[in-house]
Amino acid sequence: MKYMLLMQFSEAQTTQFPPIGTWPAEDLKAHIAFMVKTNQELAAAGELADAQGLAMPETARIVRSRSGGAPVVTEGPFPATKEFLAGYWIVEVESPERAIEIAAHISTAPGMGGAPLNMPIEVREIMSAPPVDQ
User: Fold this and answer.
1) Residue 134 lies inside a defined structural domain of this protein
2) Which residues make Cβ contacts (< 8 Å) with residue 50, sequence separation at least 6?
3) What is the spatial distance between Cα 33 and Cα 25, in angstroms, rounded to a whole number?
4) Measuring CA to CA, how many Å separate 99 from each of 46, 85, 121?
């Protein structure tokens, strides 16, 4: 079973999770070391399909097609959205419980001062395509 683990933040959490660019260098290094180690352990266990951090929401664009015209491109996820996706993991595991276990571990990534962030990690199963008749 494949799952996508989504690391989400919101503007309301900025006191709890200050923007990562404002962290002291040693805290940033500890956070990144935690993520690298987690990814290495998941890869060694054969459970990691992909993991990426994402740029800040200001760089996001929404693209919609238009019949007979150029696509419409707008900024951000949505103007009123205060939440954003900060990164993701795609894991292939034997059970939903294992995906939740991994998400719980990721949630404990260290923040400023080394305290666990306890950040929200959404766990979503990746749907399989229906079999194609041949």
Assistant:
1) no
2) 88, 89, 90
3) 12
4) 13, 18, 11
Residue 115 has pLDDT above 70, yes or no: yes
132 domain residue, yes or no: no
* Residue 102 covered by a domain: yes
Residue 2 has pLDDT above 90, yes or no: yes
Query: How far is it, in rounded angstroms, from Cα 26 to Cα 130?
Result: 48
The CATH number assigned to the domain holding 43 equals: 3.30.70.1060
Put simply, whether the predicted model's pTM sits higher than 0.70 gets the answer yes
Secondary structure element (H or E) that encloses residue 80, with its range: none
Task: Print the domain residue range for 27.
Answer: 2-125
- Per the structure, the count of domains in the chain is 1
83-111: pLDDT as tens digits: 778 899 999 999 999 999 999 999 999 98
What is the residue type of 49? A
